[in-house]
């Protein structure tokens, strides 16, 4: 009898593999009708739920079936759990997993598929057999950095704070996390100091990395501080908001869900309270503010000084400039860098709102 962990793994694989998949599941009760008597050729995978290579192939085979879904009248992409349906496996001489066979749809004669198990090779084989082209869905380039044994060492522990998800292609929870992980990566795409990455722990070129990280379950999420290769387990929530908040805290960034900057971006706390009291403080307050501006570092320190100067020269400058920037932001169509800059400047201008107008001749 198989150990309980093996049974649970097999059950999980079956559930996640069949959910919303375009691959046709075959049983002794429907195999002949679908594969041998349909007058339609079929590519059939004989697999076992516990087989590592089968788990690796599963998402590729699902994508293959989805790409040929528009040609369902010409070809069937199917699979058989040959561990559960041993008679079907023996009937067609299956001796290892996964085994892929091509059936012509009119006889029991099958051709062993001996090509590569990548999507391109499988697609080329099926297209050559049916004389039709798969409808490949356009996939936008992922913002998630896929790491392997080589690139992990190059990118983690450098100048970026890294959040890395260790996953397996057959893992249901990993599949659930995937779209959220993509959104988080997109949210931080403009932050050169943040790395959102994944490691396929079952890929041959990444197994050593997974082992070094002590990964024992999927998905495992580790945070790596800038300059460190020592993992810190992430145990927080897995929503986009949870992950964005975590990385903002660790990396000192100010991203919101969706990738825009939040209300703190660009602002400098040591200057904010001073900015609102320039009027009441008079010349002394202004000179102290100028000195404080000169003492801070960062991209927007000088902008505080510029706003203070113009606010002293022109009544209503802060409100007018804030309205102008908000108008530009509302129009949209801005490059990411410009969007971030206008958002940061708007945040700073708001720090001057609330105090009385500062007139230059009163300073």
From TrEMBL:
PANTHER family to which the protein is assigned, alphabetical: PROTEIN DISULFIDE-ISOMERASE C17H9.14C, PROTEIN DISULFIDE-ISOMERASE C17H9.14C-RELATED
Protein name: protein disulfide-isomerase
Family: Belongs to the protein disulfide isomerase family.
Reaction equation(s) it catalyzes: Catalyzes the rearrangement of -S-S- bonds in proteins
Keywords per UniProt: Disulfide bond, Isomerase, Redox-active center, Repeat, Signal
Record-annotated Thioredoxin domain positions: 4-131, 132-252
A GO cellular-component term linked to this record: endoplasmic reticulum
GO molecular function per UniProt: protein disulfide isomerase activity
Keyword Ion transport: no
SUPFAM superfamilies documented for this protein: ERP29 C domain-like, Thioredoxin-like
InterPro entries from the UniProt entry: ERp29_C, ERp29_C_sf, PDI, PDI_thioredoxin-like_dom, Thioredoxin-like_sf, Thioredoxin_CS, Thioredoxin_domain
Provenance organism: Friedmanniomyces endolithicus
